[in-house]
Amino acid sequence: MPSRQRPVGTVTRGTTNPNRLRRCDRWIAGPQAWRLRRSVTPPVIVDLGYGASPTTAVELHDRLRRVRPDVQVVGIEIDPARVAAGKPLERDGLSFRLGGFEVPLDSGARPSVVRAFNVLRQYPEDEVPAAWALVQERLAPDGLLVDGTCDEIGRRAAWVAVDARGPVSLTLSLRMGGLERPSDVAERLPKSLIHRNVPGEPVHAYLADLDRAWARHAPQSSWGARQRFLATVAEVRERWPLLDGPARWRLGEVTVDWAAVAPREG
What we know:
SAM-dependent_MTases_sf, 8 strands, 8-stranded mixed sheet, Methylase
């Protein structure tokens, strides 16, 4: 039965738009798809804090059914009115319930992925570790929390992947059309990093290095922004521990080891 404890968290603004989280969904259904396929039972995926509209949970279910037809997507919201708005859209493999970072699921259920987008961005930075820890306790053994932020229509996104042991990676995902420089994503960094984009912090150095390489490879623009981005990231890989390759870079996406960009102590 669902937990009867009071939901942990606060109501957020709830702003959302159709297709806003497509970049993260593509990553979950791509490099992280093994987490769904490995599950012996139907994998549970949580859309935590989906907002005023249940659209992103519906889209997540549609996309992940291509990976595992029996996937169970659960939209969790702390606002009862938002849960009520989702109820008419429930179907086999898609449900909505009241809750927060305690991730209330049926007894024994542990999610393979918890996607929390544009949620912690609205919290104080010092509350992030406790929220992560609470979700981590609920994850399946190979589970992952995806704590991310994106702009209003999903052109720029960034997310931290957190497993049971702690943060694993930072992913940046950018629409290359109209991109002036990779650091345009800076205002969409997750809460754990957004205030650390200052000189002396690793994430600032990482974005600056991407920008410098982007500027050096300006001539590649003759063949399109994708070729310029590929050349940019290939150069940066010589100095930073990237965890992906050209197949993801072609999508405007790049993932770096968290240890390389983690905030400095103090």
